[in-house]
Amino acid sequence: MPLAFAKLEAAGNGYIAVDGRDLDRNWAGLAQHLCATHVGVGSHGLVVALSSERAGVRMRIFNSDGSEAEMSGNGLRLLAKFVLDRDIARADPEDGLLVETQAGLRTVWPEWDAGRMSGGRIAMGVPNVEPGLRSIVASGRSLDLTIVEVGNPHAVLLLDTPVGDYPLGEVGPAVQAHPGFPNGVNFEIVNVLGRDRLRARIFERGEGETPSSGTGSTACAVAARTHDRVGDAVSIEVPGGELRVAWPGAGQAYLEGPTREAFTGVWSGPE
To answer: Is-above-0.85 flag for pTM?
Structure first.
């Protein structure tokens, strides 16, 4: 059955968005076909807009390998753009758009440009930080990790050497396969550039190294703030662009970043 879709982008993260209300599809299988670079549309993942009894819309999000993620900051912002630009849901000027996710309810406050959403701010929930550092050995390296839960799990490594020189493609899979993370983990490496600036690279579950990640950037900011390396608000440079995170050391974390629609189409390929 043909399925209309939109391809959207946020700080280098590409997602395909579809209106899944009243549809019964194999979303995991569809994600694998749609996200394939050479035979599909090509994307980091698939976000599906569904009806919700608790919020304006419900989001399900699938990685390109078909695995389902609990949460994605960039994916959530792009889903909000998809539904708001098409009047599938509406945002209250003060209260924003409430979205039901696998990680709980999240609020998006859109920024507008000529009647279209151009960016937004997300309430990411209250981060859960594991006390102290977790020391593991992966790919023959001793790593002292800060473990942060932001609706999904993250292991953050603060580095004094440039993140650009780090063999993330070698160490990332070893961290994710470590027995200490039976459900896998997102792995971030971070340079502190100042009290208000970080630089990061991200190795994502179900995806590998990715140009950007909203939850990953939030985890980086939370980890650096936990160790008093940054202040309450930071900008995070990632290969795909820049995101902003505010977290005062307790309570809710907030993520800000851009949204852009690249193109639309109709998928007539396999499910």
So the answer is: yes
